[in-house]
Design brief:
The chain is mainly beta. Strand 8 and strand 9 (135-144) form a beta hairpin. The chain has helices at residues 7-14, 47-52, 106-117, 219-224, and strands at residues 22-25, 30-41, 57-63, 66-73, 77-83, 88-95, 98-105, 121-132, 135-144, 149-155, 158-161, 175-182, 187-197, 215-217. The strands form 2 sheets. A 12-stranded mixed beta sheet has the order 8-9-10-12-13-2-3-4-5-6-7-14. It has a two-stranded antiparallel ribbon with strand order 1-11. It contains 4 helices and 14 strands.
Length: 227
């Protein structure tokens, strides 16, 4: 895989596996975060994509070293990412290409992220705070080699062990409750936490069993899809 020099493209791509690694919480080992995702674009060619992704949202749940992420991109695609304490990962995709299941691992995913990432961005922790979903968040700015800045508003009440979108690949000391991502086609996705809880109602969401109706594919083939 070639190194991706455009930081915006890298971060947008990694958003689909956001928070898929190990969570710990300074106050609790269990929790749930819901994000509303505002999708917009100044590019007329992206108008259909913006319409299809209307109502996009992301849900994150964790219990100890088990984690669950559900991303709903309107009518375009839904994705679930489940991780167990042994570092095994199950990705479930539902969309126009059918229902696909990918089994991988934390190590394999981190290797691919490191391979693509290079050193083309840095994180600057800045002064300034704001409240998001009832949590006091600090400011971090991700600066890319393409003169692009991305602002993260993160809370230190949640910690992430590993490289994830939610902690800028391990460089932000907490979890972002608000951030904005752009891709090379001019599509902007603004994530804002709207609900945070300290309990998970349904523990069955952490199962790594492949549901009926899903076709299993290799992680390498998943990567080739540009995901």
């Amino acid at each position: 895989m070639k190194k991706i020099s455009n930081m915006k493209k890298l971060l947008f791509t990694l958003a689909v596996v956001c928070f898929s690694l190990h969570f710990t919480n300074a106050q609790s080992s269990e929790g749930y975060i819901k994000y509303d995702i505002d999708v917009s674009s100044d590019n007329p060619d992206m108008a259909m994509a913006v319409s299809m992704m209307s109502g996009a949202k992301m849900e994150v749940a964790f219990n100890g070293k088990k984690s669950f992420v559900k991303m709903e991109f309107g009518t375009m695609m839904n994705m679930k990412t489940i991780t167990n304490p042994d570092g095994e990962i199950l990705l479930l995709m539902e969309g126009m290409m059918g229902n696909k299941a990918i089994k991988t691992s934390v190590q394999e995913m981190e290797d691919k992220i490191s391979e693509a990432e290079g050193d083309d961005f840095k994180v600057v922790l800045e002064s300034g705070t704001k409240m998001v979903a009832g949590y006091k968040c600090k400011k971090a700015v991700i600066k890319g080699d393409d003169d692009t800045d991305i602002v993260y508003w993160y809370t230190e009440d949640f910690k992430v062990d590993g490289k994830t979108q939610g902690n800028a690949n391990g460089r932000v000391p907490g979890v972002a409750l608000a951030f904005e991502l752009d891709n090379e086609n001019g599509l902007t996705m603004s994530y804002t936490a709207s609900e945070v809880k300290d309990k998970v109602k349904d523990k069955s969401i952490f199962s790594l069993d492949i549901p009926d109706g899903f076709t299993e594919m290799k992680y390498e083939d998943y990567i080739k899809m540009g995901m």
